[in-house]
Amino acid sequence: MRIGELAERSGVSVRSLRYYEEQELLQSERSSSGQRHYAEHAVERVGLIQLLFAAGLSSKTIQALIPCTITGVSTDETKALLLAERDRIDRQMADLAAARARLDEIVDIAFDPTLPCAHQDSPEKVSAA
Questions:
Q1: Measured by CB atoms within 10 angstroms of the end CB, which terminus of the chain is less buried, N or C?
Q2: Pick the CATH number of 1-72 from 1.20.1600.10, 1.10.1660.10, 3.40.920.10, 3.40.50.360
Q3: Half-sphere exposure of residue 66: CA atoms within 13 angstroms, side-chain side
Q4: Which residues partner with 29 through β-bridges?
Q5: CA–CA separation, 123 vs 66, rounded Å?
Q6: Which residues are CB-neighbours of 14 under 8 A, at least 6 positions away?
Q7: Tell me: the pLDDT tens digits for 2-30?
Q8: What are the extents of the domains in the chain?
Q9: DSSP three-state, residue 24
Q10: How far apart are CA 61 and CA 59, in angstroms?
Q11: Could you tell me the pTM of the whole model?
Q12: CB-CB contact of 1 with 9 (8 Å)
């Protein structure tokens, strides 16, 4: 399939697909006229790449993990990399939970009718607070 069809079927822009190729996350064959042609499994590969990017992995990390997803064989290095990425995400989740808790405290203060903050209606008073 050509790049436009892959973009349509995977829901990813042509620009992103070119970037994936540039980062060696996706491969295509070139026709004699230079057009990219992708195998049928490229749709699934693009979905995996999108999932890994959404998880916060870098293209370099994804590139290191792609062979494992193709062969089904993981090395000690890929296992360590996966665990490190999971730990990184856990830390981010903890940081976000702490930020959310702090924001909840601020919301509670803002809406507490017994505090002066809840009675400020104008933007000037809010920004001065």
A1: C
A2: 1.10.1660.10
A3: 23
A4: 37
A5: 51
A6: 3, 4, 7
A7: 999 999 999 999 999 999 999 999 999 99
A8: 1-72, 74-129
A9: coil
A10: 5
A11: 0.70
A12: yes
- The pLDDT tens digits of the residues spanning 24-64 come to 999 999 999 999 999 999 999 999 999 999 988 999 999 99
SS3 36: strand
Rounded to 5 degrees, φ, ψ at 30 are -105, 135
Residue-level length of the chain = 129
Contact 5, 42 (CB under 8 A): no
* DSSP states along 89-109: HHHHHHHHHHHHHHHHHHHHH
Residues whose CB is less than 8 angstroms from the CB of residue 100 and which lie 6 or more positions away in sequence, other chains included: none
Contact 83, 99 (CB under 8 A): no
Question: DSSP assignment, residue 37?
Answer: E
